[in-house]
Write a structure and sequence with these properties.
8 strands; five-stranded antiparallel sheet; globular
Length: 119
């Protein structure tokens, strides 16, 4: 039920963004959290690249933002899996201002989008 509601909210946000002109940044700044020890790390990833954030591998497909507001609502397409494993834990769009709408579900780690890298 919660997944259905979250998907509906993501689709609603996507429609709202689709009505705006968006630009694609060359990459994104992501933040990782290790929930066990409270450590955070910020990582810049270029589109098409993969970064290791704690015990997770995170691939960035694209990072988009409103063309009229480069510091506004960034959203990125992420694929996340545990380091050394092939099963995906997350594959989809994550919105910087509302990461809980479509969030990574992992017991130890959390990853979210901070902003797109802008030219």
């Amino acid at each position: 039920m919660m997944r259905t509601i979250a998907l509906a909210l993501v689709l609603t946000a996507s429609v709202a963004v689709a009505q705006q002109k968006v630009a694609s940044g060359p990459g994104a700044t992501l933040r990782g959290l290790d929930k066990v020890n409270g450590q955070t790390v910020d990582v810049e990833v270029k589109n098409g690249d993969t970064a290791t954030i704690f015990g997770l591998d995170v691939a960035l497909g694209d990072c988009r933002y409103p063309a009229e507001n480069p510091t506004g609502d960034a959203f990125a397409y992420l694929t996340i899996w545990e380091h050394g494993k092939s099963e995906q834990l997350f594959d989809g769009w994550m919105v910087a201002t509302s990461p809980a709408l479509n969030a990574l579900d992992h017991a130890r780690y959390d990853v979210w989008v901070i902003r797109c890298i802008t030219p």
